[in-house]
């Protein structure tokens, strides 16, 4: 019987348990994307709390495209020395650390009038009103190179791996979604074409970091819009293609923050409003099972993971091999250590999402002393 505290590997990255901290925008980097003492302290607390692997908040790969304030950057070599010190601190505390990288596109209302925002087509974010212009083929090539260069910096900085963010309505997931991708060239139309930019970015990143450095992807299972969005069938096609190309693990997510219908139904970014019952926990598990049956690489399940018994059942039914938690570790950074010591109680996180509205993404229960 497999356990959540098995020692395993993703490629050559040793995992002391099957838990990851899922990426979370902390809003604590400085205006250029550099680390601050407050941001570093959050990661140190997580590492002390026993989670085997931490995925950073998303880091932007091009200097002029910062989707949100307080994001980490990885767009030039100036970041490498401070990240080397940072990753060493986390390693000394016993955790791996992976950097997630992103191009945001119209998932922003930050400095909108001061920069060009790319989309697969000329499209509008239904929730913020932000417009994106259709990216040209020349600009696509620039973006591919930006991802590759960012991945190389991630490796040189001492991170244990790099994760591509391809979910929640950010640019790469926009390309996958026919809701937004109306192109008529080789980057639009069929799912092979809509996925082309993702495949090309992965291949460029692999060439930049070599065969022995883990590359993961956070991939939308579906947009969960009633008509015209990314479907599970198309998502599975993309996942299988990436697995065949050599990607090392897939983190399952879903939803689209830019589509009103989706956010109104609380599926904007892998989070239902309140997880109140066991049947609503681990809510992407059925897609994860389909994916695990299709590919021979690790599947990481995020979204509503709250209860050890449920996660153990998912693990031993081979729905997923790893589990990402974000809000629970915001509420209880030492949750994994508590579980490893023998506590079986469910996390105190109630998925109220108030942490997303506080500086540093702090749990409101902790702020109130609960």
TrEMBL record:
One of the Pfam families matching this protein, by short name: Oxidored_FMN
Domain NADH:flavin oxidoreductase/NADH oxidase N-terminal: start-end pairs: 4-343
Highest taxon, organism lineage: Bacteria
Cited InterPro entries: Aldolase_TIM (IPR013785), NADH_flavin_oxidoreductase (IPR051799), OxRdtase_FMN_N (IPR001155)
Gene3D superfamilies named in the record: Aldolase class I
An example Gene Ontology molecular-function term: FMN binding
Keywords recorded for this protein, A-Z: Flavoprotein, Oxidoreductase
Protein name: NADH:flavin oxidoreductase
Lineage of origin: Bacteria, Bacillati, Bacillota, Clostridia, Peptostreptococcales
